[in-house]
Amino acid sequence: MIFRLVLENVRHRPVRTMLSVLLIAVPVTLILALIGLSNGFLEDSRKRSAGVGADILFKAPGGSLMTFSTGALPQKIVDVLMTEPHVVQATGTLVQPIGGFDSINGIDIEAFGKMSGGFVYAEGHGFQTPDDVLVDTWYAQQRKVHAGGKINLLNRDWNVAGIVEPGKLAHLFAPLSSMQDILGSTGKVSQVFLKLDDPKNADKVAAALKVKYADYGIWSISEMQALISVDSIPLLKNFINVILGIGVIIGFAVVSLSMYMAVLQRTREIGILKSMGATKSFIMSMIMAEAFCLGFGGTVAGILFSYASRTAMHAIAPASLPQAIVYAWWPIAGAVAMGAALLGAVYPGMMAVRQDPIEALAHE
Amino acid sequence: MSKAGTNQRGEMPDPIIKVRDLWKVYQSGRVSVQALRGVNLDVPLGEFLSIVGPSGSGKSTLFHIVGGMTPPTSGEVWVGGRNLSDVGDGGRTELRRTTVGFVFQKFNLLPNLTARDNIRTALHISGQPTSVFSKDFLDILDLLGIAGRLDHKPSEMSGGEQQRVAIARALATRPAILLADEPTGNLDSANSLAVLKLMRDLNERLGQTILMITHNDEAAQYGHRIVHMRDGVIVESSLTAGH
Ligand SMILES: Nc1ncnc2c1ncn2[C@@H]1O[C@H](COP(=O)(O)OP(=O)(O)OP(=O)(O)O)[C@@H](O)[C@H]1O
Ligand SMILES: [Mg+2]
């Protein structure tokens, strides 16, 4: 019966209900979009790094996994590493960030192709001139380019030689030598990928390399996959916490205000319920149940909006920021919204509970 | 109540309401209003009592105290065996839930709920089953003539119908006492007459104890007895014709 009472109250003020639900949905959407974007980005990074086909990643001393120091290794080291036990292939790439979450990778297309199993061309072909670039289908869609088209990157016009299926290291590739020229990093690479005779040896070989090249950044691919997480993106965790905090504040404020108004508007009805012998806990649970409905509605709306934001992100920037739908965060975002809503209803609920029945009934 | 129920020696059983030297003082800022100034009243079980008196004489205040809406300032008030001077907020809430039913001039139905759900809310609050109405209560609904209007909301009903639903809601939990504060005050004469007759029927057929405040002398005649109030005290009590 309490439920019916609450339902009718919620239905009877559709504008207030809709507004509250929409406002509560905002932080829920924010949380889910942010989590979705970071997870999407990380998942994409993981797939692309696995797509290289390497077993070990080798970086200059002090290099971290998710940051790049352009041209920090001498290219000669590729040949040196080739001589290490179990290593059967090695290839260096030169990475240059181009803003946002994208970067352009200078590759030795032959060696890279051999390690990764080769590009699959949706359009066009491999590098033929130093000005050729390859882009993956995501990036081509985002920038609306086709094979044979031109694209301006790093203040230079490039020919789009081919469009390749995504999932191998990066979205954008240029010949290694061209990149070295442009960046003034002749004979340098940012990182070296090693392929072993057997992937099972990865941890053993990585450990041995770590001893030999003490200060260098060395990861087996499985280590690397594990490291590509929320923790590896600087400040992301803090940012998520801030958004969660904002969610709590918005949910709390919206429901406080909304239920405060509701209690004022329903003073007389509260008086009626009290005249029938409604207890304090009855009145309180009625207010709380209504806040719960608003919080729940806001959660559901926020989840729906996160699908909308994914569609929007996909239309705006399909390559750089794929937004995942992370089910595991639904209950968390929901708990934040509903917790805040219930908290916000405490004061209005107390107001209703304390209402004098006679005065309440005299209320117009 | 020690001597409740039948009494072989023909004495009056203990009254369901017993009021002794009841005072109620409202303090609003520096001004204190003596709404009741020493009321004494006994209402036996099954009586239909009319209360009349000029505006501001304390009639509603008396109801509010007897009905557990506000505590007395001093004096003794026994309702259904409970001493209301001794109970707190929780005790008064329980009195409202179990022992009295209110009917108001302004009907006071919950506007968003149908008549049925208004009644079910009262049953729910008093902890009684809400899915089916008892045989007794169905008879009351028949008597009130609203069985066919139960799925309408207050806004879809006439004043007379709303007031009959309000009476049904007040009686749904079968309280010992029905307190009706100017129940015909917002009704035209035809509907007033219908409501008054219904209250008399409820009193006669079910033995329902009813206290009714009214400004209308004719309406007052429906009771067994009329109590006159003035300036916070009862100044006169007289039986109506035939009682
Ligand atoms: N909550 C209150 N605070 C202050 N004074 C009050 C309060 N309630 C009632 N009074 C005063 O107590 C006195 C009695 O009021 P009450 O409502 O009992 O009169 P009444 O006989 O029911 O009048 P009416 O016929 O107009 O309904 C009045 O002077 C009124 O102003
Ligand atoms: Mg009055």
Characteristics of this structure?
heterodimer; A: 364 residues; alpha+beta; ten-stranded mixed sheet; two-stranded antiparallel ribbon; 13 helices; 12 strands; B: 243 residues; alpha/beta; Rossmann fold; six-stranded mixed sheet; four-stranded antiparallel sheet; 30% helix; binds adenosine-5'-triphosphate; binds magnesium ion
Report on this structure.
- Chain A is of the alpha+beta class.
- Chain A folds into two domains: 2-44 and 233-362, no CATH class; 61-215, no CATH class.
- Chain A has helices at residues 2-12, 14-51, 76-82, 109-116, 137-143, 176-183, 202-212, 221-227, 236-265, 267-275, 280-316, 329-354, 357-362, and strands at residues 56-59, 73-74, 87-97, 103-107, 121-124, 132-136, 150-153, 156-164, 172-175, 188-189, 191-196, 217-220.
- In chain A, strands 1, 3, 4, 5, 6, 7, 8, 9, 11 and 12 form a ten-stranded mixed sheet that branches.
- The model of chain A has no long low-confidence stretch (mean pLDDT 89).
- Chain B has seven helices and ten strands.
- Chain B has helices at 59-66, 89-98, 115-125, 135-144, 159-171, 189-206, 217-220; strands at residues 17-28, 31-43, 48-52, 74-79, 82-83, 100-103, 177-181, 209-213, 225-230, 233-239.
- The radius of gyration of chain B is 18 Å and the shape is globular.
- The two termini of chain B are 26 Å apart.
- In chain B, 47% of the residues are buried.
- Residues 1-6 of chain B have low confidence and may be disordered.
- Chain A binds chain B through residues 1-2, 4-5, 8-9, 11-12, 268-269, 271-280, 282, 356-358, 361, and chain B through 64, 67, 69-70, 90, 93-98, 102, 104, 108-113, 117, 120-126, 130, 169.
- The complex binds adenosine-5'-triphosphate and magnesium ion.
Please describe the biggest sheet of chain A, giving its number of strands, its sense, and whether it closes into a barrel: 10 strands, mixed
Order of helices and strands of chain B: EEEHEEHEHHHEHEHEE
Low-confidence stretches of chain A: none
**Mean pLDDT value of chain B:** 93
Mean pLDDT of chain A: 89
Helix percent of chain B reads 25-40%
Number of contiguous helices of chain A: 13
Number of strands of chain B: 10
Order of helices and strands of chain A: HHEEHEEHEEHEEEHEEHEHHHHHH
